[in-house]
Amino acid sequence: MSEAVYGEEVMGRITHGLLRLSTAMRSQAWSWAESAGLTPTQGEILVLLMQGKTALRLGEIARQTALTAATTSDAVSTLESKGLVEKRRAVDDGRALAVKLTPKGRTAAKRAALWPNFLQSAASSLPIEEQGALYRSLLKMIRELEVKAHIPAHRMCLSCEHFEPLADLGKETKAARKTTRRTRSAAPVHHCNALLIDYPDTGVRLDCHAWDLGSEAKQKKNWKIFVQPV
Ligand code: SF4
Predict the structure, then answer these.
(1) How many domains does the chain have?
(2) Last residue in a domain, options 85, 112, 139
(3) Which pLDDT score, from 0 to 100, does residue 112 have?
(4) Residue 105 and residue 46 in contact, taking contact as beta carbons nearer than 8 Å
(5) Which of 84, 112, 152, 196 lies at a CB distance of 3.0 to 4.6 Å from 43, suitable for a disulfide?
(6) What does the pLDDT read at residue 119?
(7) Are 41 and 62 in contact (CB under 8 A)?
(8) Å from CA of 164 to ligand 1 middle
(9) 163 in ligand 1 pocket by Cβ < 6 Å?
(10) Shared-domain flag, residues 164 and 99
């Protein structure tokens, strides 16, 4: 396909590059799913249930996977017929149903979580500073897509009440601050007030069990500090 379809400017080239990655992801996801007798959507739901650790309602599965209610319901019914998930009464509402993995489903979910390994392998070929810069750019793009409602919100540090970005730099000089930012892909520049840990940009979480939605003011502050140029 001609690059001109997406334009010759850098935005067009980035879009083209991301679309090539999505082609690789689709191809690898289908390849894995066919070998497991599932669809990529079913595999994604299994991994989601494994990550969540608790039973999830159909509506929550649909929200987190950005699938329609009908597609989610069909996929879960198929997984149930294969003995990979089971439905039970939701703990917080006896009238609602929640979906959880069976032991067989947990084994399948562990295998499903491995199909993106090819991406991990490609990313690991980058120098460590580039890995940090790439992850930082991805976090920014994910947040931008969240704000525009193109993808569901994540339980990520950037929107969390407990996140203290660049926490250990408060008393440092401007020069020291600049130096630390250069190494922020490796240096522990952020702090979590819930887990009491310090971590670098590469430690910022995308899906955290201890996440608490920050107030609007807190989210704005997190974002303002995080996006300061490196
Ligand atoms: S590690 Fe978890 S609890 Fe801590 S700031 Fe990040 S999302 Fe929030």
Answers:
(1) 2
(2) 112
(3) 93
(4) yes
(5) 112
(6) 95
(7) no
(8) 9
(9) yes
(10) no
Residue linked to tokens 């894995």:
32
pTM of the model: 0.81
For the chain, where are the E strands, in sequence order?
56-57, 85-90, 93-101, 163-164, 190-192, 197-199
Identify whether 118 is part of a domain. no
The residue behind tokens 């807190």 is 218
Q: Is residue 108 domain-shared with residue 15, that is, in the same domain?
A: yes
- Give the separation between CA 17 and CA 117, rounded to whole angstroms: 19
Distance, CA 56 to ligand 1 centroid (Å)? Answer: 21
208 and 148 share a domain?
Answer: yes
> Is 120 domain-assigned?
no
Indicate if ligand 1 lies below 6 Å from the C-beta of 147: no
Range of the domain at 80: 8-112
Q: Output the CA 150–ligand 1 centroid distance in Å.
A: 23
Q: For atom 8 of ligand 1, which residue has the closest CA?
A: 211
The pLDDT score that the predictor gives to residue 89 is 86
pLDDT of residue 168: 47
* Low-confidence residues in the chain, pLDDT < 70: 1-3, 168-186, 188, 229-230
What is the per-residue pLDDT for 186?
63
Q: What values do phi and psi take at 89, rounded to 5?
A: -65, 135
Q: Which of 143, 193, 208 for a ligand 1 pocket mutation test, highest count of atoms within 8 Å of Cβ?
A: 208
Find the 196 Cα to ligand 1 centroid distance in Å: 9
Looking at the structure, tell me whether residues 50 and 12 fall in a common domain: yes
Atom of ligand 1 nearest to the CA of 160: 8
Q: pLDDT at position 178, please?
A: 52
Atom 6, ligand 1: residue with shortest CA distance? 157
Confidence (pLDDT) at 53:
74
Q: What is the pLDDT of residue 159?
A: 94
